[in-house]
Amino acid sequence: MQSDTPFSSPGQRAGSSAGPFGSDAVVPVSALNRAISTMLERTFPLVWVSGEVSNFTRAASGHWYFSIKDAQAQMRCVMFRGRAQYAEFTPREGDKIEVRALVTMYEPRGELQLNVEAVRRTGQGRLYEAFLRLKAQLEAEGLFAAERKRALPAHPRAIGIVTSLQAAALRDVLTTLARRAPHIPVIVYPAPVQGVGASEKVAAMVETANARREVEVLIVCRGGGSIEDLWAFNEEALARAIAASELPVVSGVGHETDFTIADFAADVRAPTPTGAAELVSPQRALLLRDLDHRHATIARSFGRMMERRAQQLDWLARRLVSPAERLQRQRTHLQQLQVRLASAGARPVRDARARFALVQLRWQRWRPDLAMHRNALAGLAQRLESAALRHHERQTARVETLAARLEVLSPKRTLERGYAALLDAQNGRAVRSPSALKLNRRLTVHLAEGSADIALADIQPRLSDSL
């Protein structure tokens, strides 16, 4: 609960010298009550309080109003409907109870009260502590380990029930089993489920069911009740008997919110006895539906197999022939093989002849034609002869032309016109200048009709530019 009073803050402690209620402060009653309520809620945590119920009243709104008292004092209590509807019992005048409550104040009247969140009978706290101690002990020993849990049979041949013959849970379980699986026999192992020695008797029935081997799964169940009523299923003897059972055990004790040591030791916990019956029994309608489906599947498979067999039979019948027909088929096959053999023997000769004809044709195609080549050679010889003759005639004409030209240019023609050529007799060089003429020098004179050697005796040079 939060407070909007201006006289308190979250970090302020009651009785602090810095508090808002000084000697001169004037505050309204509502603000004072709100400050006190806030301080109470912050100072006192949730606490269990024990006492005797008095002045119990259930309002039309569903809220509970009562007082809890002991020999020296009392305290008013309120339990609102949202929490009261989950209480396991309704307190009555004079009941010894324990309440888990928050200390608060009803501000309009300035009355101190307990805002109750949970209620239980006196002694349940000690029972719950004993429950937790035993649970921790057995869990440490591995009795609750998941790997030791056994799977429930899918189609049990018989179901065993350990419970009281007068228990309403037995009727619920039998009704559920008769509705879901009327074909499965049920064996009841009677044992008291409440009172002194009930735990040992239930454990003895679990051991008896294991010894007789009459069933394949075992249900340990009883209806709902207080923690004292269910305490027989929180005893160590029953927990060890369930853990040692070779038969799978389903625990269906109390309501969905009730947990017992037997629930943890069992292979499967069911929320209610009816739920336990549903867990161990396959539903007959579903089994019949599955059986019909499997029957239809088998019928279809058998029909398909018969069709395949009939087809195989027809195929074998076609293969089955008389000996005479088989001999005739073999003769026909032999004749075919003979024809194929003859054809296979003639084929290489035929192929060789074809290859030979092809080679011959190719050879004839590339064989040289001597007559044609002779004619070509004669033509070439005639052309060569004609070309040589024409070349000789051209060369002859050219020589004659050059001879005529040479004749025209010949020095003899010049000498025939009266000229002479002087050559030095020693070196054969032509004398071109009068200065080259020296006394007693021998010269060779070339004339038109011959040559003569002369020696110069008298030299009178005369230069002339022209003849």
From TrEMBL:
Catalytic activity: Exonucleolytic cleavage in either 5'- to 3'- or 3'- to 5'-direction to yield nucleoside 5'-phosphates
Subcellular location, record wording: Cytoplasm
One cellular-component annotation, GO: cytoplasm
E.C. number(s) listed in UniProt: 3.1.11.6
Keyword Nuclease: yes
Keywords: Cytoplasm, Exonuclease, Hydrolase, Nuclease
Zinc listed as a keyword: no
Polar residues compositional bias, start-end: 1-15
Every Exonuclease VII large subunit C-terminal domain range: 143-453
Region (Disordered): 1-20
One Pfam family cited in the UniProt record for this chain: tRNA_anti_2
Record domain OB-fold nucleic acid binding: where: 28-119
Predominant location: cytoplasm
Gene Ontology molecular-function annotations: exodeoxyribonuclease VII activity; nucleic acid binding
GO biological process: DNA catabolic process
Subunit structure: Heterooligomer composed of large and small subunits.
Family, similarity comment: Belongs to the XseA family.
Function of the molecule: Bidirectionally degrades single-stranded DNA into large acid-insoluble oligonucleotides, which are then degraded further into small acid-soluble oligonucleotides.
Protein name, entry field: Exodeoxyribonuclease 7 large subunit
